Amino acid sequence: EVHLVESGGGLVQPGGSLTLSCVASGFDFSTSTMDWVRQAPGAGLEWVSSINRWSTLTSFADSVKGRFTISRDNDANTLYLYMNDLKTEDTAVYYCALPDGGRWSRRGQGTQVTVSS
Asked: Given this model, what pLDDT does residue 86 score?
């Protein structure tokens, strides 16, 4: 059974930084492309970033490009999202997920990121 546990969220002021982590188990993490997605209050899931199994290909939504970085440690079964220059519009619950064709049905419980002064 796929198990994904996110951590690292919190309250941060605009312009601040946070690092999210996601520990994976129950599947072969090292061979899986992984995504970060987010859900703002009252909105649907929004794709944020992806990384391939070898960390040779990463991609980002235009809204976070240049501010967020994604990485992974296959030995530790862990996915990371480094978020810099946070904006109020980044406020959301952040999930790590298997892509599943954009359905992200296999995702963790999420971690809340709140950007507010």
From this structure: 98
